[in-house]
Amino acid sequence: MKVLLVEGQTDAAAAAERELREHGHTIERCTPHDRSAPCRGLEPLGECPLDSGDIDVAVVGRMGGPLAADERGALCAARYRVPVVVAGNPRDAVSFGPGTHLAPTDLIGACERAAQSGDAHVAAIRRELLMAGVVTPADVDVDDPPVWFAVRREPRRLRLEVHVPDGDPRLASIVKAAGHAIRNFDQHTPVIDVIAARS
Known about the structure:
This protein is of the alpha/beta class. The protein is built from six helices and eight strands, in the order E-H-E-E-H-E-E-H-H-H-E-E-H-E.
């Protein structure tokens, strides 16, 4: 995995960095070494690591307290729809939006699960399609919903599955609307595969 590592205080993410490197993951940082700018994207000729589109997950090492200025990278990751994993004590955690995951113990497992999770994307699709009237609460908000969505994150790619009952004449309109909804929510992932399935 390619991991954007963020820390609000010096060495707050040191243990997380060691563990990630020991498991062979690549580390990127968004804070310049010489502190010449607030972030690498604002350096002269600088580039934000998120612009490459290949960051799988952002990991934030925290030592408590309010959100620190150097934790802005996690906010940017959330804006790019990259999952954010908060390492360490859950009491020190803050939310970086719906894609925030806590990792009080199993950091590697939490990162791997978060990197693949499309839960925030699914929630956005359901919300947009309900608001547009493309689906109804009876389609998606019941114990065994007849219409459901699954999203899997992969490097530089999203895989969206749209499941509609066999014979439902709305298949094409639901698939089209779901494709638009996921792109509206995530404008940074380069490729989105949309797969229609009959249930």
